[in-house]
Amino acid sequence: MNRFTLILLFLVTWLSVFAQTQFSGLRLWLTVPMALSPALICYAALTHGFGITVSLAVLSGLWADSLSASPLGMSVMPLFLLGFTLQLQRHLILRDQGFAQFWIGLGAGAGVPLLTLGILSLTGSQPVTGRFTFIQLLILGLLNGIACPVLFRIFDLLHRSFDYRPLTTSSFRADRETVRGRQFRLR
């Protein structure tokens, strides 16, 4: 992946964190913030190396915590665990299949807020939960489940547009003739 698409991945992550905290009309309509960070971490873990995945998880968690009411660093651990788990099991995951991307995004979208809620309750904070917490987790899971295949398609298109394609050359040339046997040379 070249630098442009990598910078674009971090920029899209920053914009998604900013959008989840600043656009209150959509948040009130959906009853949950539009947190697309789990889907972006899924993409980074399945397509990039460990360093990029960890960097994106840490920055995304810190950006989300700096714009929300939760303590700084509270969202880093669930995003890191998601990226680390997917990075370890990436050889078993069908990365190019849309249904696999949907289910991974659905699990990540519901699992990351659930882990964050668990960490908040362990630290003694009073997280806001109620009757609709399960429905909110389901909405977040569906949102990330739908966003994950879309993000894969968009970033794969950018990857094909801005990266060099590997040149497939072999040592065989079609215009070369192989002569077997004895060769006589005239002097």
Write the layout of secondary structure elements.
Elements lengths: L2 H20 L1 H7 L6 H11 L2 H17 L9 H13 L9 H25 L10 H30 L25
Helix pairs in contact: 1-4, 3-4, 3-5, 3-6, 3-7, 4-5, 5-6, 6-7
**Share of helix, binned:** 55-70%
- Distance between the ends: 56 Å
Give me the strand/helix succession: HHHHHHH
Broad structural category: mainly alpha
Total number of strands: 0
Q: What number of domains?
A: 1
Mean pLDDT: 86
Q: Provide the low-confidence segments as ranges.
A: none
Total helices: the number is: 7
Structure description:
The chain has 187 residues and is mostly helical. 66% of the residues lie in helices and 0% in strands. The chain has helices at 3-22, 24-30, 37-47, 50-66, 76-88, 98-122, 133-162. α1 (3-22) packs parallel to α4 (50-66). The longest helix is centred in the C-terminal third of the chain and has 30 residues, at 133-162. The chain is elongated and about 95 Å long. The relative contact order is 0.14.
